[in-house]
Amino acid sequence: MRSFFPAIVWFIFIFVLCAIPGKDVPQFSILELLAFDKWVHATIFFVLVVLLLRGIKFTYPRAARISVALVALAIAIPYGGLLEIMQGAFFADRSADLYDFIANAFGASCGVLLYPKLAARWKFFQRERLLT
């Protein structure tokens, strides 16, 4: 469970960000918002998937790479969709946006693709660091 702690914290952080009332979210011009907002969505879901992959790989080190990737995507992408639905239905001054969901899925997919490079370079992604 300890190896999933960063992913769980990030999972909650994303939920809190998405639950902030719309009136409290900084406003940008339309052009700036389109570019910046989508990159924020992609980035937070990139981080979520990278942390999920780390946790899964530490917990199940012999799991096949494709299985690990599919599990991470099966968690992150529906979570992104659910958050968009919740923003439209439950969160104050927020709305669901298909393009935000697409940005979430894009970021998650990039996380799967880039995880091997990150894991090879940073000690945070190496199991030996966790055991010491």
Can you give the helix content as a percent range? over 70%
Principal-axes shape call: elongated
Number of helices: 5
Main sheet attributes: strand count, strand direction, barrel closure: none
Whole-number average pLDDT?
A: 86
Structure in words:
This protein is an all-alpha fold and 132 residues long. The chain has one domain (2-19, 31-131). The protein is 75% helix and 0% strand. It is built from five helices and no strands. It has helices at residues 5-19, 30-59, 65-89, 98-121, 127-131. It starts with a helix and ends with a helix.
Topology diagram in text:
Elements: H1 5-19, H2 30-59, H3 65-89, H4 98-121, H5 127-131
Helix pairs in contact: 1-2, 2-3, 2-4, 3-4
Q: Which structural traits does this protein have?
A:
single chain; 75% helix; 132 residues; mainly alpha; 5 helices
Short description:
The chain has 132 residues and is mainly α. It has one domain (2-19, 31-131). It contains five helices and no strands.
